[in-house]
Amino acid sequence: MDSSCILREIIDAHGGLTLWKSLDAIEAELSAWGLLFTVKRRPVLDHVKVSAKVHEPRFVFHEFPFSGSTGELIGNDEVRISRNDGTILERRLQPRSAFKDLRRLIYWDSLDFIYFGGYAMWNYLTAPFIFLRDGFHFEVLEPKADCSPSWTRLRVVFPDDVPTHSRTQTFYFDENWHLRRLDYTAEVVGRWARAAHFCENYREFGGIKAPTTRRVRPVLFGSRPLPGPILVALEIFNFRPVRKED
């Protein structure tokens, strides 16, 4: 089966093209923790409400980084912290380039986290429908010995206008065409930060099917992940597709 046929199966398995085109955003509540939070001296996320635009890379953390504020990602162009009345308190243009500073090896400030967490969660909440955007390239790969032989592997090259972990990533889909794993390098953490990201506990929300449990494990050599530590653990609650007319 070629990549275009596989993509149709994947999109259908997650809710279908027609439903996705009718949506404006995804709203969710999430908790996240793990070694990355400790290393970068960031507090864990405990039932934080978020929203993701589905047709452009925009993401909002509500009541974050403190009560009465929002943290917002606007693609690769800007991150900002605003009061709930819209007053901008802090902003950073071209936030990805800021990670070249050595200070980011020691700790991340709130704008750093809003960039990393915002683009990562936008990718997670919109995948695999993100593949419908122009500029993606796909290659079907052979099965891996350390994964189920029934899983389909896709090498995906992202376009430059999509903020993401790394331009080239590998996605694994099971026999139901559900996303079960993705491999990438978290380049803003470091070019050595290779990871395997596992997706479990699929549920249906308003016609969209999505994993609600995610765990990210380090990969040192090849493609086999280490059993620990857990770099990021993510639980997603109250996933709600928002239609354009809502």
Question: What's this, in brief?
Answer:
The chain is built from four helices and 13 strands.
Question: Please, could you describe this protein's structure?
Answer:
The protein has 246 residues and is of the alpha+beta class. The protein has helices spanning 3-13, 17-21, 35-39, 110-126; strands at residues 23-33, 45-53, 58-62, 69-74, 78-83, 88-93, 137-141, 152-157, 168-173, 179-185, 194-205, 208-218, 232-243. The protein has a single domain, classed as Lipoprotein localisation LolA/LolB/LppX (outer membrane lipoprotein receptor (LolB), chain A), CATH 2.50.20.10. 15% of the residues lie in helices and 41% in strands. The protein has a 13-stranded antiparallel β-sheet. The protein is globular.
What's the total helix number?
A: 4
Overall strand count: 13
Relevant CATH superfamily: Lipoprotein localisation LolA/LolB/LppX
> Which strand-content bin applies to the residues?
35-45%
Layout of secondary structure:
Blueprint: H1 3-13, H2 17-21, E1 23-33, H3 35-39, E2 45-53, E3 58-62, E4 69-74, E5 78-83, E6 88-93, H4 110-126, E7 137-141, E8 152-157, E9 168-173, E10 179-185, E11 194-205, E12 208-218, E13 232-243
Antiparallel strand pairs: 1-2, 1-13, 2-3, 3-4, 4-5, 5-6, 7-8, 8-9, 9-10, 10-11, 11-12, 12-13
Which key features would you list for this structure?
246 residues, alpha+beta, outer membrane lipoprotein receptor (LolB), chain A, 13-stranded antiparallel sheet, 13 strands, 15% helix, globular
